[in-house]
Amino acid sequence: MENLLRPLIVVGGSVVLTLVIGWATDFLLRKADERHHETPLWGLLRRGRIPYMIVLFAALLRGSYDEADLLESRAEGVGRTLTLILIGSAAWLVIRIAAAIVETSYSRYASARAHRDPARVRRVRTQVTLIMRVVSAIVGVVAVATMLLTFPAFRAAGASLLASAGILGIVAGVAAQSTLSNMFAGFQIAFGDMVRIGDTVVVDGEWGTVEEITLTFLTVHTWDERRITMPVSYFTSKPFENWSRGTPQMTGIVFWHVDHSAPVEAMRDKLRDILRECPAWDGRAYNLSVTDTTPSTMQVRALVTAKDADDIWTVRVTVREQMMGWLADEHPYALPRVNTADAVLAPSSNGNGHRSSPDGVPAQQRRYHGNHNSGRPER
């Protein structure tokens, strides 16, 4: 009877104690979260309740397993398994606690500076994300190394591994040269403030927003819902456009090709009216100028402003569309057209000094139609 009750007491007692201690800890964290709404720390710590209960159960069962007299022939294997579970769950718990602390610190910083310095907040967010990945990687490597050291064969091989560490390091460095360069580039991006999560960038002719930054790759979410994954070393070795660098305010350009008779002053007034009705315009500045001419058209350029890259796109397409519609409705003559005319030979001089065309009519006596696009003389 004792041989039956002892395993039940050991295993059942470990389970009961784990549930009771886990419930009590979660209850205290929940009460603390309800009482302190200004910090998310206690709510974030509750995310670690599963690894916390696994650690409790593995520790209690590992400490009391010898008293259970259960599977005595496999006691060493069971004990090592419980030790591995304890190490793995402890590493998991450490990562969750570190993530809660880092996330809490970032939340306080972001709430205090979100409106005053959004670019700085995005920079800190990028750094926090990469720091958490580094911490997770370090904790994982330490946990795996500790698990391996629980096996006698690996402990015996430790000396030979250390002796060949130099050669292995050289070989690994050569083999992982690309990976290591990306990792160092990731640190350079995080702490060099080159690009941040949420920045609007143009890379290889693609416009999008930085969605994710890791130690080895970076993901750009394009305007047409595509994701472009690029090695972070690209951003340290090649030029790219970062529209969010400094202040997010931007100036956009809209071009039109119109006829030489287009009413430029009326176009300026219309541009002002369009911008006043456009919510995306930030009201800072606007301008309209003739920037170039060709034999058949002239080029008109409008400058508009907006608070960020998304709004500047909206302002540009709105101005372009409404201005062209207004010209088509109110001033159709201002739209560019192709001028056509009959070929005319060079005029020759007659006796009285007047030049006449091949039909004998003096050029000074010719009258032209009011439509300047025809180019054909009226006889």
Largest sheet, in brief, is: 5 strands, antiparallel
Low-confidence stretches: 353-379
The radius of gyration computed from the alpha-carbon positions, rounded to a whole number of angstroms, is 38 Å
Mean pLDDT: 76
Protein described:
The termini are far apart. With 379 residues, this protein is α+β, with helices and mostly antiparallel strands. The chain contains twelve helices and twelve strands. The chain is elongated and about 120 Å long. Helix 1 packs antiparallel against helix 3, helix 3 runs antiparallel to helix 4 and helix 11 crosses helix 12.
In short:
With 379 residues, this protein is an alpha+beta fold. It has helices at 2-35, 41-45, 49-64, 75-113, 118-149, 152-156, 158-163, 165-175, 177-192, 234-237, 264-276, 309-330; strands at 200-203, 206-213, 217-222, 227-231, 241-242, 250-258, 281-293, 298-306, 348-349, 355-356, 367-368, 377-378. Residues 353-379 have low confidence and may be disordered.
